[in-house]
Design a protein that fits this description.
heterodimer, A: 295 residues, mainly alpha, MetI-like fold, 14 helices, B: 470 residues, alpha/beta, 3 domains, six-stranded mixed beta sheet, 21 helices, 47% helix
Chain lengths: 295, 470
């Protein structure tokens, strides 16, 4: 009955929102629900279980606890997330934006454009650039050996795979955080900082006491967005290392792909996807909680 | 003014929704291209020709210089077929990918009526799995009335059977495996040629001599990178394992622990880690490793390559790295068993097949195309182009086939040939092998740990009750 009592304004809004809601339901909510159901089945991609799959309850989730590859991928995901998203993109993006404040217009646009290039570049192009940079006969080795820092080239992607993909992801994603923080920093009124300066605040105090509290909202939004994006990074890692060597760069998204499309275990693959979804929700909730703490 | 804006906004929203709806209802049909719908589309666009049947033909396309396309083009296969069978059109829908991804994408496409191709190339290791899923059309009735079927070798007929013993494909080729080696590298290192190792130790010996003579030459390449998919399992792991006397699947159970399995992991460890006789990992794990190694073996920067005989196709005049006087430059030795003896050599044999989707609406016409590709002349030339062995017993009548490089060796090695387990779980076990082998060579995992991992991962895939320990 209440539905009928929506105001005229509300009904109009509903009318305009209807296409979006329909699309969301059909292309987003429905697949999520379907995956949720599949994660409780022993469905496979091919073979007799692809059509005659059974409901097996929480088996997949129990199996994860004793699956060493799952634990490795989970740990890899956290390492990748902390270093490439939080430490890399968020903090680096913040400091770049901070350092570019009140600088010469030409300088700003030059530095800004340089960083933006990494962001504009499609993921796959970006990973090929980094493979070329890190490969045995690549730019990095050529530079380091000709400067005499290295005696012989190192295959970075084999010896330091996680560091390599983290650097590539930071390069690829920092511009997004930088743009967000630039906008936020521009909104801080100049007089607040000026009065802080009169009160005798030094540079560091200005950052921690004035700037960070004032852009807390942006920090939280940015953290949530880049965390969710980094959790889902697949193409970059897959094209650079394929999750290897061995399992050294296998994150949950790579492991999910390997299980679902490599081992044909669709059920287990979707169960891993569910864990990723939950991880994303939990982390986002944590950020929101943190942002409510008074600084 | 305000009202006008509202009207425009409403109009825009409507237009967008309508176009989206249009997309969603159009897309499936565009994607379907199942014979009937594409015919309907054609008839609505063009005039007449209501009787034209379009068959979608999917195959694995190599990144460059695709040997199947070369055969189709140069031998005018499709033109000839269409001329002989008016009313049937073949539409090429290649998948350009690695071997592993091809099997996955094909399985995904086959699972839905709207995306399944009508005719496709299928690696026979997937035949039993895809047949169990109901993706493949059973061809028993067709081959029973096909007089050419009797010319197909029994081994190749075996490879296209499902677990139910029915026929699900027409063999395109079969293949044996062995060790390609560069004569010059061997002569320079003081190893007598032609070379034929009689056990595993002699392979290692040759590699050690090559390394000692010139450290810049990489002695031995066995496929170990998991991006090579089935190549890791078949060309490397099973070529070793089946030479120990043990197998993957015995007495209806998956063997998860045996001396053969341990020794196989140990050999791989020895080559790539303990003695560093393998190619460096940045080559072995690179996505273009195949191209690098084919070139390296031809140039003499790589000594030996445990490979499928079809690899030779890369060095013939039609290949990517043509080598003159091929058989004097690159030799092809049989893979010895672990300690030699009887049998002295071993090969795995597999091959590809043509298959028809269970969703295909025109199976009779599709089989006509299969039969056309599988006749004596076409089948023989197909295997000549891709460097594999013909599945037919009468191909040697064709002069070019009898004269091709390595044909004597390829055929001789088939004497001790094994096929992969005909079991729908094979594809899943195989991916476990691929991951563990890559982990073994690239992480600090030892051969013993690899054997343990193999046990636990295979159990988790096939279930404890389907395994046995030796």
């Amino acid at each position: 009955m209440r539905l009928l009592r929506i105001s005229k304004q509300g009904r109009k809004a509903l009318l305009f929102l209807a296409p979006t809601i329909a699309l969301l339901l059909f292309f987003f909510i429905w697949p999520v629900l379907l995956s949720f159901y599949y994660s409780f089945t022993d469905m496979t991609l091919s073979g007799s279980k692809s059509t005659n799959y059974n409901f097996i309850g929480f088996n997949h989730f129990v199996r994860m606890f004793s699956d060493p590859l799952f634990r490795t991928s989970f740990a890899n995901t956290l390492i990748f997330l902390i270093f490439s998203a939080i430490i890399g993109q968020l903090i680096l993006g913040f400091f770049i934006a901070l350092l570019m404040r009140n600088k010469n217009r030409h300088f700003r646009s030059f530095v800004g454009m340089t960083i933006l290039v990494g962001w504009i570049m499609p993921e796959i192009v970006c990973s090929f650039c980094w493979v070329a940079f890190f490969s045995k006969s690549g730019t990095l080795n050529t530079a380091l050996t000709s400067l005499g820092i290295l005696s012989k080239p190192i295959s970075w992607l084999v010896s330091f795979p996680m560091v390599s993909v983290i650097i590539a992801n930071i390069w690829h994603g920092t511009a997004f955080s930088m743009l967000q923080f630039q906008a936020a920093l521009d909104d801080i009124p100049a007089d607040v900082e000026a009065s802080a300066a009169i009160d005798g605040a030094n540079r560091w105090q200005k950052i921690t006491r004035i700037i960070i509290p004032m852009i807390k909202g942006t920090i939280m939004t940015d953290a949530i967005l880049i965390t969710l994006k980094t959790l889902g990074v697949f193409g970059l890692i897959y094209a650079m290392t394929g999750g290897g060597p061995g399992t050294k760069t296998t994150t949950l998204s790579i492991y999910m792909y390997r299980q679902a499309f490599g081992s044909y275990q669709m059920g287990y693959g979707t169960a891993i996807a569910m864990v990723m979804l939950i991880l994303g929700i939990v982390l986002s909730a944590c950020y929101v909680k943190f942002s409510k703490i008074k600084l | 003014m305000k009202k006008k804006a509202k009207v425009i906004a409403l109009f825009l929203v409507l237009a967008m929704t309508l176009s989206l709806v249009g997309c969603s209802s159009n897309n499936p049909t565009a994607g379907t291209q199942s014979p009937s719908s594409s015919t309907n589309n054609d008839t609505s666009n063009q005039t007449e020709k209501p009787e034209e049947i379009v068959l979608k033909f999917t195959y694995k396309q190599a990144a460059s210089n695709d040997l199947l396309e070369k055969w189709l083009e140069e031998k005018k296969v499709i033109e000839r077929f269409e001329a002989e069978n008016p009313g049937i059109k073949i539409e090429l829908t290649p998948i350009s990918s690695s071997e592993g991804d091809y099997a996955t994408l094909l399985a995904l496409k086959l699972s839905s009526e709207t995306t399944a191709p009508d005719i496709f190339m299928e690696d026979t290791y997937m035949t039993a799995t895809d047949a169990a899923a109901g993706y493949l059309a059973c061809l028993d009735d067709y081959v029973a009335n096909w007089d050419e079927w009797s010319h197909y070798l029994d081994g190749t007929k075996e490879a296209v059977k499902g677990t139910d013993g029915k026929i699900y494909g027409i063999p395109i080729s079969t293949d044996s495996r062995g060790i390609f080696y560069n004569y010059k590298v061997f002569r320079d290192a003081g190893i007598p040629t032609p070379w034929q190792p009689t056990n595993w130790e002699e392979i290692l010996d040759a590699a050690r001599k090559i390394k000692a003579h010139d450290p810049s030459i990489e002695p031995f390449y066995m496929i170990v990178g998991k991006q090579n998919g089935e190549g890791v399992s078949m060309q490397t792991f099973e070529m070793l394992l089946y030479g120990t006397g043990d197998q993957l699947y015995e007495n209806g159970k998956w063997v998860v622990k045996s001396k053969g399995l341990s020794d196989t992991f140990k050999f791989i460890e020895q080559v790539y880690k303990t003695e560093k006789l393998g190619v460096s990992l940045d080559v072995a794990l690179a996505s273009d490793v195949g191209a690098q190694v084919n070139k390296g073996l031809a140039d003499g920067t790589i000594g030996m390559y445990l490979a499928v005989a079809t690899t030779a196709g890369n060095w013939t005049s039609t290949g990517s790295y043509p080598v003159e006087n091929l058989e004097q430059v690159i030799g092809f030795a049989a893979m010895p068993t672990q300690y030699g003896g009887d049998p002295a050599t071993i090969t795995m044999c597999g091959g590809w097949s043509w298959a028809i989707s269970s969703h295909c609406k025109y199976k009779d016409e599709a089989f006509k195309f299969l039969a056309f590709c599988g006749n004596k002349e076409n089948a023989t030339w197909r295997s000549l182009y891709d460097g594999r062995m013909s599945p037919r017993d009468d191909s040697t009548d064709i002069e070019e086939y009898a004269m091709r490089p390595y044909i004597k060796e390829m055929t001789a090695y088939m004497a001790n040939a094994y096929v992969r387990p005909k079991h729908e779980s094979y594809a899943m076990v195989s991916t476990q092998i691929q991951t563990i082998v890559e982990e073994l060579v690239s992480t600090d995992m030892t051969a013993e740990q690899a054997a343990e991992e193999y046990k636990s991962r295979v159990i988790s895939v096939v279930g404890n009750e389907n395994t046995l320990t030796k």
